[in-house]
Amino acid sequence: MGVLMTAAALTVFAVRIAPPLVQKALRDLTLPLSYSSIIVHQADAKRLDPALVAAVIYAETGYDARTSSAGAVGLMQLEPATALALARQSGATSFHVSDLGSPAVNIAYGSYYLSELLRSFGGDETAALAAYNGGETNVDHWILRAHSKGHRFGLGDIPFPATRAYVEEVLQAQRAYRHKYASQLGYT
Question: Which residue of 40, 88, 134, 148 pairs with 163 in a disulfide if CB–CB is 3.0 to 4.6 A?
Answer without folding.
Answer: 134
